[in-house]
């Protein structure tokens, strides 16, 4: 089984889409943990705030199959096939880490969002502060300690929980 960290985000009908994403992802392997849900402002465009969280799943699926399934979930729940960056999202599912996989082709792993976005590093830190980022050598904690703008995040009291 491979330990996978997936970032979930939505700023359109957020409660519904976050809940269905967690439900859908729980079927992809042995569901392990979910972070706190954080609300953050939209970045790069004027839009509604986002709900973001990270889930950790242990799966036996290959990276290629896992990535394809995530894309199909996004589309099934209303994401346009040709969706552009910096626009409203019903659902955004990104593989942040896939075991120790390092690659420059799509999906790029580890995902560089770890280094740039508070809504990625904060929930990842919450789940696995001592995890070493493949190819980097630093822990999630090391990166979190250097992160900026963590204060833009607001923890959202979960309205549902997924059993481990």
Describe this structure in words.
- It is a single chain.
- The chain has five helices and six strands; from the N terminus they run βαβββαβαααβ.
- The chain is of the alpha+beta class and 164 residues long.
- It has a single domain (2-154), classed as 7,8-Dihydro-6-hydroxymethylpterin-pyrophosphokinase HPPK (Alpha-Beta Plaits, 2-Layer Sandwich).
- Strands 1, 2, 3, 4, 5 and 6 form a six-stranded antiparallel β-sheet that branches.
- α4 packs antiparallel against α5 (140-146).
- The mean pLDDT is 90.
Describe the secondary structure blueprint for this structure:
Layout: E1 2-10, H1 14-26, E2 30-34, E3 37-40, E4 50-59, H2 63-76, E5 92-98, H3 113-116, H4 118-127, H5 140-146, E6 154-156
Antiparallel strand pairs: 1-4, 1-5, 2-4, 3-4, 3-6
What is the first-to-last residue Cα distance?
Answer: 16 Å
Domain count, please report it: 1
Shape: globular
CATH topology: Alpha-Beta Plaits
Can you write the helix and strand succession as a string? EHEEEHEHHHE
Largest sheet: 6 strands, antiparallel
Number of strands: 6
Provide the CATH architecture.
2-Layer Sandwich
Helix content: 25-40%
Which value, in Å, is the CA radius of gyration?
15 Å
CATH superfamily: 7,8-Dihydro-6-hydroxymethylpterin-pyrophosphokinase HPPK
Mean pLDDT: 90
Q: Could you say which structural class the secondary elements and strand pairing correspond to?
A: alpha+beta
Discrete helix count: 5
Mind telling me the CATH class?
Answer: Alpha Beta
Q: Show unreliable segments.
A: none
Offer a concise description of the structure:
This protein is of the alpha+beta class. The chain has five helices and six strands, in the order E-H-E-E-E-H-E-H-H-H-E.
């Amino acid at each position: 089984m491979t330990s996978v960290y997936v970032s979930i985000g939505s700023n359109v009908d957020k409660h519904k889409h976050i809940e269905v994403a967690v439900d859908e992802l729980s079927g992809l392997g042995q569901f392990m943990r979910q972070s706190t849900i954080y609300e953050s402002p939209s970045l790069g465009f004027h839009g509604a705030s986002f709900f973001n969280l990270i889930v950790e799943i242990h799966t036996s699926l290959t990276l290629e199959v896992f990535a394809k399934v995530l894309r199909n979930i996004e589309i099934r729940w209303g994401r346009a096939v040709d969706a552009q960056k910096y626009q409203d999202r019903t659902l955004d599912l990104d593989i942040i880490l896939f075991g120790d996989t390092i690659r420059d082709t799509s999906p790029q792993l580890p995902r560089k969002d770890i280094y740039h976005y508070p809504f990625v590093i904060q929930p990842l830190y919450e789940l696995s502060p001592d995890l070493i980022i493949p190819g980097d050598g630093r822990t999630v904690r090391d990166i979190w300690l250097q992160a900026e703008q963590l204060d833009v995040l607001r923890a959202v009291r979960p309205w549902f929980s997924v059993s481990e």
